[in-house]
């Protein structure tokens, strides 16, 4: 036989020499829940917490020590209302967390999730009228939230609401407010997914009625992802995202091949909890499964990996 592919797999040293895809700690982004109250464990996400501002410094120290360079903040306010007003309150929980983080670790990249669902009493991502989420009346509120987080010191705003036109509205508001250098990481391809359950538990953001299928994407569609991504780029997105991760690698590959904007993939709460539950039951090698999953996302084209396993993965990568 002239060709023997196994020759390139004969030893670890040879495999390491010829491997195609690598994960670096700088690829990792750590999502964090910040609560206006006491630090709490999240039962559906073992090992993940809702951090109080008092406990945030020690958590950030762990992030900085790990070598992970970026965090993504989600806020859980004490009070919620119909309009999600705490999302754009300059003294809101996320805004205070951003200011504290930038004071303690000015070089840490802070990404602020921009959405209303964690802040609305009804749990939807926009303004409600007659039982429906109203797109255009939601846009100014998302822009206000982005400006508020930019004023607090966020490096990147990440709108996750899936309202039409929100990237353009936010880009214009940031530019008009003197924040033309703030990046927008667009949740461009965000599917309506069964894999978000633990997140809604963590953020207390489950809809009080209906679902989010009228604004998040239908998982049966792929071409729609191209349309959504093109719109976001045309409106000013600097980074695009596919969410969830592992079930949508085909979509991520297509989007990455078609567009030159850096791609992030979000390994969402359900993906984390499934691996964690299987590992706790002794059914799976947690470290191997996580590294394999994240490598698959890099192989699909991701430059950035948003994962609740970021701190563990950073440690495991050092060991490998």
Descriptive terms for the model:
8-stranded parallel β-barrel, 12 strands, two-stranded antiparallel ribbon, alpha/beta, 320 residues, 18% strand
Q: How large is the count of helical segments?
A: 11
Helical content stands at 25-40%
User: Could you tell me how far the N terminus lies from the C terminus, measured between alpha carbons in angstroms?
Assistant: 33 Å
Strand content: 15-25%
Main sheet record: 8 strands, parallel, barrel
Give the assembly state of these chains. Answer: single chain
Number of strands: 12
Report the order of strands and helices.
Answer: HEEEHEHEEEHEHEHHEHEHHEH
Strand order of the largest sheet: 1-4-5-8-9-10-11-12
Cα-based radius of gyration, to the nearest Å: 20 Å
Average of pLDDT: 96
Q: Provide the structure class.
A: alpha/beta
Shape: globular
The low-pLDDT segments are none
Question: Would you kindly provide a written description of the structure presented here, covering whatever features stand out?
Answer:
The protein is an alpha/beta fold and 320 residues long. It is 39% helix and 18% strand. It has 11 helices and 12 strands. The protein has helices at 12-18, 56-66, 93-104, 135-152, 166-176, 197-203, 223-235, 249-258, 269-280, 286-299, 310-319, and strands spanning 28-35, 40-41, 49-51, 70-76, 109-114, 127-129, 132-134, 156-159, 183-190, 239-243, 263-267, 304-307. The chain has an 8-stranded parallel beta barrel with strand order 1-4-5-8-9-10-11-12, surrounded by 8 helices. A hairpin with a 7-residue loop joins strand 2 and strand 3. Helix 4 crosses helix 5 and helix 5 (166-176) packs parallel to helix 7. The chain is globular and about 70 Å long. The two termini are 33 Å apart. The model has no long low-confidence stretch (mean pLDDT 96).
